[in-house]
Amino acid sequence: MLLMESIRKKLILWTGARHCGKTTSAAELVQKVRDEGFKVCGLLSPCVYRDGELVGFDVLDLRTNHRAPLARCKTSNGKAGPFNFITEGLKLGNSALTEETTKSADLVIVDEFGKLELEGQGWRKNVDSLLASSDALILLVVRRELVDAVRQLYADFFQRELAATKQDSIDEVVNMLKSRCVEGQNVEA
Fold this sequence. Notes:
Largest sheet: 9 strands, mixed
CATH topology of one domain: Rossmann fold
Order of helices and strands: HEHEEEEEHHEHHEHEH
CATH architecture of one domain: 3-Layer(aba) Sandwich
Distance between the termini: 14 Å
Helix content: 40-55%
C-alpha cells in the first residue's frame, strides 16, 4: 500500500520568474508528453498581447483545446492596472480541472497556481480535490516568489521542484511518467 501511495501522490512545481517562459515551456512539455503516448489534461494560461503590451491572459483547456479569455487588465487614464477576471474563462478553467475531466490523465497541468489559489480562490478547490483523488502527476506552474508558500500548503505531498526554463525539466517529467508506468505494473503484478 505504501508503494501505491508513493506512486499516486506526486506534485511537480514548475517554477520560474514572472514572464520568464513558464507557460511556453509547459506547452512544450504537453507536446513532448503526448508524443510519448501519455494523456495530458488541465489548463494553460497564455499571455495576450496587444501592440506589444500585455493586456491579459486566456485559458486553454488541454483536453478539448477550447480557449477563452480569462483575465484582462483594467485601464484608467490610459494606464493598465490589476486584472479583471472573466466568467467564461473561469468556467472553462474549472471544468478542465474536475475529477471527471481528468480521470484518465497521466499528467494534469495547472497554469498557474498563484496568489489567488494560496488565498483559497481560483483553481484551489480543484487542485485540492485532484491531489486527494487523482492517480495523475499534478504539475503546478508557480512563480518563484510563491514556491515556499505552495510547498508549505502541500507539505503532505511528495513534491518535486523543476525549473520551467531548463530543457532537462521536460525530460525529467517524461521520465517520471515512464517510471510511474513501470512501478504501476509492478504493483499490479
